[in-house]
Records
---
Amino acid sequence: MSKMIYILNGPNLNLLGKREPEIYGHDTLADVETNCAEAGKRPGLSVKLLQSNHEGELVEMIHDARENAAGIIINPAAYSHTSVAILDALNTFEGPVLEVHISNIHKREAFRHHSYVSARADGVIAGFGVNGYALAMQHMGTLLA
Ligand code: DQA
């Protein structure tokens, strides 16, 4: 049976493809889901992609992952830089957690350089565009093999 990976996305990522395309590109979250499903085939992983603009909803998605997912790939978006609640929720999850940022947060404004989530993440990908999600899927396959 395939292992389930939750791909969680924070605020404003519902607008991916339309939002600041010079920074985040033209692909949408639907494209990300398709690419991740493809990347998961060989290692036997299935994906559920979720997005919320609300911090508490993201916390609840992580609680749901505790029961239903083997691993989490998360782009917490702006909450990366502010949310102890999301960090605490991730600390209750026992499987691997990979953090993805589409842009290279270290090349941008100073307030984006720190991510609370990185204190829990088993790996971080930043600046690989939306391809970072598929790369994270590939690594998830290695971690869960
Ligand atoms: C982001 C980077 C964050 O600083 C920003 O708030 C986002 C997206 C990224 O994917 O590059 O919304 O997480």
---
Amino acid sequence: MRITALAGGVGGARFLRGLRSHLDGLGDGPHELTVIGNTGDDITLFGLRVCPDLDTLLYTLGGGVKESQGWGRAGETHVVQGELAAYGAQPQWFALGDRDFATHIARSQWLGQGRSLSEVTALLAQRWGLSEQGVRLLPMSDSPVETHVVIDRGDGETEAVHFQEWWVRHQAGVPAQRFVALGMDRAAAASGVLEAIRGADVVLLPPSNPVVSIGIILGVPGVRDALRGTAAPVVGVSPLIAGAPVRGHADACLAAIGVEASAQAVAGLYADFLDGWVVDPADAECRVKGARLAVHDGPLLMRDVASAAHIAGTALDLALSLRS
Ligand code: FO1
């Protein structure tokens, strides 16, 4: 079975690790999983290109992630960061560990040699054994797209800051007026992205942030049309439970675009292509025009691989029921 997923950071990575586990349990492989990763979070720091969502997907699927925080490397140290701070090098609000730095150095070296982000991502994925798992990780685009956030400075002025500064330095605590995906007007879908959507047997939307992760991928030219046109059922998993995000600041992001923080409202953002929607029992009364609802038979919380696998199984079963 060819499965394609659009994914952001921690929620997307944990869901896909669960999906891999669920597919292994089915024992009827091989299944090809193509993951289209959000690159709107990407940022250049200390002259290095950092791709937080792609790295979170690599580390989580590859078994190297720091489990308690969902991003960054397990067993990490921060010697280099301490030395940078000693020199007063900025910024210091974004934690970069020594092992993580190697990823950014390798990526920046290969990009500097003229390789595309897709090629670089494939090289990094080799080290993490993704192809052995039948997983192909594609950036949504090979040209740079950066999400910036227009915030109120408080003195009546507005200011645009990089998404990571809003997300990490301000912890999304400063009201966001709107999000701007810089570079999207010049971005083309990376090779294989649109084909992976059109040629899939199933398309899944993990419980990633609907505004700054899934929403950014949907902004890549051709992606939304491919989702509308694919013969594959498109099934998503709600990132909200009873109006609250499972983690992160999805509610602050939804408020910024004037959308209610509910499972129903998020499904409404995908209404033009969504065929199925998986919700927590607390949201059983959710109604989505044109999409079939599956109420998960337990909390929609991915506490561990097993619970993520169970949720992925619910989403996959809903998709397969929509195919037949
Ligand atoms: N998130 C934080 O809350 N604080 C950090 O200092 C931080 C550093 C960081 C470094 C590398 C990386 O790949 C991710 C990092 N994240 C950090 C997470 C990141 O901001 C978010 O996971 C995504 O960008 C949003 O999905």
---
Amino acid sequence: IDPVRYIADRSSGAQGSAIAQALVGLGARVTFISGPASAPMPEGVDLVRVETAAEMLTAVQRNLPADGAVFAAAVADWRVASASDSKIKKDGSGALPVLEFAENPDILATVSQMKEGRPGLVVGFAAETDHVLDHATAKRLRKGCDWIVANDVSPETGIMGGSENDVTLISETGAEDWPRMGKQAVADRLAAKMAEVLGG
Ligand code: C5P
């Protein structure tokens, strides 16, 4: 918004970090592109740190080709259209600042819809608060990815920022409901499934 204020969300980045760690554990060469996450970074990866959606898209494109790609980042859908160069001041008149937004590039959709050089397996996430399965199924088709890991991030689930996850894996062949388990267990199971498809 200005040099001291920004828009963020409640994601910790823990699920993405756990997936990278699980893939490293299976012997994959992993490039981990991370926004300003609070979760510990995975070990044994090539780490690329970014701050904005545009920077993340560039970093992703620079690091292709890849056999598989997982998009677990909670990328902001919108950014402030023109961030102020100096701190926006309260002038005592009671006038309120008005923020205008611009849409960020959709990294998952961009990569999923690549005509050439698309990763063989593209996995996206869907964080929803209602009609999880319907929204996530529609999202898979709209974005063009192969799998969507859908989770309910309503505050009462404690999933966003927490250590557990409760996911449904949606693919072309249907939806697979996984029991609630730790984020590392979700990551291990997802990585094992990716290895099956990508030939171990
Ligand atoms: O549309 P929504 O943000 O719910 O989609 C979630 C999925 O899309 C996640 O896999 C997320 O990493 C990805 N995404 C993206 N670029 C954006 C917004 C979301 O890659 N600008």
---
Amino acid sequence: MAKHTVLKQYFGHTDFRPGQEELIDGILAGRDALGIMPTGGGKSLCYQIPALLLPGLTLVISPLISLMKDQVTALNGVGIPAAFLNSSLDSDGFRQVCREIRQGMHKLIYVAPERLGNEGFLALMQEQNVALVAVDEAHCISQWGQDFRPSYLKITAFVDQLPRRPVLSAFTATATAEVQEDILQRLALRDPVKVVTGFDRPNLFFDVRHPKKKDDLLLALVEERREKSGIVYCATRAGVEKVCDLLNRRGILATRYHAGLAEEERRQNQDDFQFDRKAVMVATNAFGMGIDKSNVGFVIHYNMPKSLEAYYQEAGRAGRDGEAADCILLYGPGDVSTAKFFIQQAGEENEALSPLEVAQIQARDYRRLEAMVDYCKSTACLRGHILDYFGQAHGPTCGNCGPCRGQFVRQDITRQAQMILSCVKRVRDRLGYFVGAGLISKVLRGSRDRRLMQLGLDTLSTYGLLKGTTAGELGHYFAALEAEGYLFTELEHSTLRLTPKAGEVLFRGAQVTMTRRAEPEAAISAPAAAQPVEDSLMAALKATRWKLAQGEGVPLYVIFSNATLADMARRRPRTMEDFLEVSGVGQVKAEKYGRAFLQTLADHRAGEEE
Ligand code: ADP
Ligand code: MG
């Protein structure tokens, strides 16, 4: 069978996504592979299709137990023999799967990395013909990454003990060069085919809001999206509790997830969300890696994360089905101090590292945080900002983010800019070091603050130049000057610094304009795309899916994704042959569910003709 046949017959797709074919071809030709694609890019197929075509067994190493179960359910659902071995199985279940492996029943086996150190498991694999090892979420092998897992370091030792070296492949959505290099080295990939696809996710709408009251805006945003499933990320456990209560009091079906909950409750809540019993998951960043829920319609960050990598990964959990989805960040100045606190704390807690290493890691974390804050303050295309960060080229505007869609007021602030920048310069010249924005603001507004007086800053020529301007207003000017690249907040010591570009304003008369979003506090952001009122056919198809999912006890998307239902509603197939044309419908699913959906479509036609 050829790879295209497998794609169509099992997975119901007609075309490969960017990068998939190259990786699959490489693996089939016996080469190691490294696939770097965004979340939702389709990495799983890159090892699942070779697994079917290669003689022997494919071992998939994946960090999360819940994810394995869902992937295996999904594979079995399209007729592919696969199983997992992990701590969620009881001893009978475990022996059963081992027996099935010995009988050669499976094409794919999912295991957690911890398992690789187990003697029994090694012995079992030594008896098998392991053709391919696929390392999913491969960034877990890197200490530079967000989610380092020491057990990932066992992979090479394990592979070395197999009688024949299998093809080794690794997949991740993490883009940074450091992490890529780490993966190559630590897995000892041999001359791999390496595919890095674009990082853009065109169906995601990005926005940053600066609300006075986060709770009000959050409620408005979630209520607007009542039909959808979504995730709200908070920085702390206490935040999760508070926000989850807030939503529940408003009658929104929300559940929660954080490391402080008992294992049992976490699993229950995750299931409630996964199975669409609860529409909204409120969680800390402990929730998410490897979640495979394709119909997440929005991801709202109640607090700013600590880096753009983390943000893009979390926000990227929206819209994996390719449907329009919203990623909205609610920024508040307090978020910066929370993030700084986490950076400090992480350094202090990590006893395995030397003081020098701690300092290096903290310095790097501060740079990342600064980039995150830049994003929050940006008034230009947000998608462009993200792609710049990952080093990918892009057009000037994307048309699908807050700034690209928003209404802006522009104001000339050249005069204020000159005063502010020269004040920062004078203070620096006087003291020999940069100070924070708070002190600069006080100098400009002519405050009688004690520290200011002690330092003698009231004798500067810029003292009191902007008397009568409120601290809030000055904050807007600072933010605008940062967005334009004249000022820069260095977070480790909380200082406001001049950039070399400031010279253009100070010495060469450059004009400065401030771009401010026209956003009345209560106004509700434009949703990603005009949301079509869901028509009755789509509702009927969803109802049928719901019934089938209940019957089988599987999540909705294991039956069909929203994208598949949407294509079905568009094509309105009448025969089984037409039904197979629907994107996402393969042979096995057509046989299992075709009749039910064709019936729903027929009922709908009859209703229309009446
Ligand atoms: P990743 O692991 O890269 O985050 P997945 O492998 O989970 O992404 O795939 C995300 C979604 O994309 C799944 O719903 C999958 O069915 C779909 N998908 C993958 N490849 C294709 C393809 N070639 N055509 C259409 N849909 C695809
Ligand atoms: Mg994946």
